[in-house]
Amino acid sequence: MAIHDSLQANVHAIQAAPLGLPPLITEWPTDLFDQQQLNKLHRDWVAAGQRWPKLPLLLQQLNLESAWRGINHDIHRLEGSFAWQFQNYHVHPWQIPNKFGTKFLDHATSNIMLAYDNLGRSSWEKFCNHDTDGFDVDTNNFEQLSGRVEITLSRPMMWTRPENYSNWCALHKLPEVGSNMRIGNFDDDVKTLTTLRHLFVRNQNEPSNTICFAL
Fold first, then answer.
1. I want to staple 10 with a disulfide (CB 3.0 to 4.6 A). Which of 25, 56, 70, 127 is the partner?
2. Which tens digits make up the pLDDT trace of 140-151?
């Protein structure tokens, strides 16, 4: 079952609970892709548990504890699920030489990024995987650009280069290359976020869904 459908089913199960339950949720959501409504549902869920500590015992008797706990679990799963990959090939990776070099690479994230799809490992990947062998054999720092694009609706993060990564690169005489090639962001607005969630989820089920970029 899709995460959205699972959350919807759990919400409906609690809404349809027999009379006698305390008012657990002050206002039930009408659009589960609306982050503001998800935030309110989550606050109400937490507040209900704080206000009625014995609520799980009552829900157990009504066979509703799983649905109630599922609401919180599905909210977090749904929030992290809005991510996709688009590529212009089916089997054989499409690549061109990277004429931009590595100066545009960093550790920040964006809504739209060019995926690392190279033969080998970047300095960052070698660091993350404790790979200290064969630097001259399989180190590849975005020497080619691929036809694979990653899109996420999670909020962009302006991470900086970890100090231990810089120290590791200095020790092994490797260039301090960033992990991500950012392309761009959508409007950082919660209302735009709702629209984008509906748009991408609807289009992911279309038999022909394409997306174009110009760099």
1. 70
2. 888 888 888 999
CA dihedral of 199, 205, 208, 209, whole degrees rounded to 10: 30
Measured between alpha carbons, how far is 164 from 170 in angstroms, rounded to an integer? 10
Supply the DSSP symbol for 42.
H
Residue 196 CB contacts under 8 Å (≥ 6 apart), including other chains: 82, 153, 186
* Model confidence, pTM: 0.85
Residue 132, both tokens: 């200290």
| Residues recorded for the chain | 215
- C-alpha–C-alpha distance, residues 153 and 107, integer Å: 17
Q: Which residues have CB under 8 Å from 33's CB, separation 6+?
A: 4, 194, 197, 198, 201
- The pLDDT value given to residue 215: 59
Residues 145 and 65 in one domain: no
Last residue in a domain, options 59, 79, 99 = 79
Pair 182, 107 in one domain: yes
